[in-house]
């Protein structure tokens, strides 16, 4: 069953910045990583640095080679439609 994808802007993304509700933007896509947090090999705290924000620079810095699209397929919320510069 395919989930309906949403369009997510910066205001909406930044609301999901908690351990219990954590969305991250990576390369134009927004993921709800809440269920993935405890499985992240780099730890919860590291992943939470990108909570409700643009995780692309940190992701690239630590492991640009990781296949996040495949790993987070079931976590995809939808495309990012906001302004990245509002997320700093
Ligand atoms: C390690 C996935 C985001 C920091 C890893 C590894 C995976 C992974 C698979 C193990 C890599 C290996 O084989 O060595 C992901 C996914 C992300 C994500 C799917 C997307 C949401 C981030 C972010 C940060 C981060 C945003 C930094 C703020 C780290 C660190 C390690 C790590 C520091 C190294 C842990 C160690 O080897 O001690 N991550 N990561 N990751 N990740 Fe992430």
From TrEMBL:
Residues 5-81 form the Cytochrome b5 heme-binding domain. It comes from the Eukaryota. Belongs to the flavoprotein pyridine nucleotide cytochrome reductase family. This is Cytochrome-b5 reductase. The lineage of its organism: Eukaryota, Metazoa, Ecdysozoa, Nematoda, Chromadorea.
